[in-house]
Amino acid sequence: MKTMRRFALLACLLALGLAACQFTESDREMVRSFIEEWARSKNMHPVNEDGSLSLQGLWNAGSRIVTGSTGDDEADAVLDAYEVIRNLNEADKLIDKGRQERDPAAMDQAIQQRPGDWTYRVSRAALALEQGDWTAYTEQTGAAAQIVGERGIDPLWYTNQNIQDLEPVQAKLAASGWPNKEQCIQVNQALATHYRQRHALTASADDLAQAEAAESLAAACGG
Fold first, then answer.
1. Phi/psi zone of residue 65: left (φ > 0), alpha (ψ -120 to 50 degrees), beta?
2. Where are the alpha helices (H) located in 68-180, listed in sequence order?
3. Collapsing DSSP states into helix, strand and coil, what is residue 100?
4. Burial category of 178 from C-beta neighbours within 10 Å (exposed 0-12, middle 13-18, buried 19 and up)
5. Residue numbers in the chain where pLDDT is lower than 70
6. What is the pLDDT of residue 55?
7. Most Cβ neighbours (<10 Å): which of 68, 124, 182, 214?
8. Residue 111, Cβ neighbours under 10 Å: how many?
9. Which residues contact 196 (CB under 8 A, 6 or more apart)?
10. DSSP codes, 18-29
11. What's the pTM value of the predicted model, to 2 decimals?
């Protein structure tokens, strides 16, 4: 069953790319491990399983770097998949740093590495709202919505991500005192919009109540 799962994940990755495949961290590790095993079996991994250097693997890996191809289309496809996973892991570390440390520069680096990842852009937009950067908020919100629309991303997945990123921003700024009226309005209106979008998808009474509460808070900003 595990073997079938990792082949399915690899097929999704190669055919559609990560944006269309909902990969969990364990999924990524499974695919990465599978590709490493495959690369070693083909003498294309620079490091043996015991950690020692593989001269043949180093030569073959170096040849691909220099020429851009191993000469084997199947091998190139699998190694391309591995590169996607590796780059994603690096970008994930940057976006996680940005989320935890509220660091826009780290988020921007992650987006630069993976410009098509709409989840990164949603988180960057929320941070921009928190920091009162309206230009970045507008840019990232627009880019995320465009990616979601073009790739047919599940709208519930999209609105959940927005709410998940915006709720802590609202709580933090409300607790510390809103810096200004505009920021109060923008954050609460953004939350209200996504609550209403989720209500339209789920018909949840709680989402409707949350939307109305956020709208009331926006109306009361500076009052």
1. alpha
2. 73-101, 104-113, 118-130, 134-151, 155-176
3. helix
4. middle
5. 1-88, 223
6. 45
7. 124
8. 21
9. 207, 208, 211
10. GGGS---HHHHH
11. 0.68
Partners of 72 in beta bridges: none
The owner of tokens 């660091």 is 103
**Going by C-beta distance under 8 Å and a sequence separation of 6 or more, which residues neighbour residue 109?**
94
60, 38 in Cβ contact below 8 A?
no
Phi first, then psi: what are they for 44, rounded to 5°? -125, 10
Residue type, 24: T
Tally of residues, the chain? 223
The pLDDT, as a whole number, for residue 113 is 87
**Amino acid identity at 39:** A
The radius of gyration of the chain from alpha carbons, rounded to an integer in Å, stands at 22
28-34 LR contacts (CB < 8 Å, sep 24+) = 28/85, 28/88, 28/89, 30/2, 30/5, 30/6, 31/6, 31/81, 31/85, 32/82, 32/85, 32/86, 34/6, 34/10
Report, in this order, helix, strand and coil percent for the chain, each rounded to 5. 80, 0, 20
Report pLDDT for 151. Answer: 85
Token pair 């990616």 is at which residue? 147
- CB distance 193 to 185 below 8 Å: no
Three-state secondary-structure class, residue 45: coil
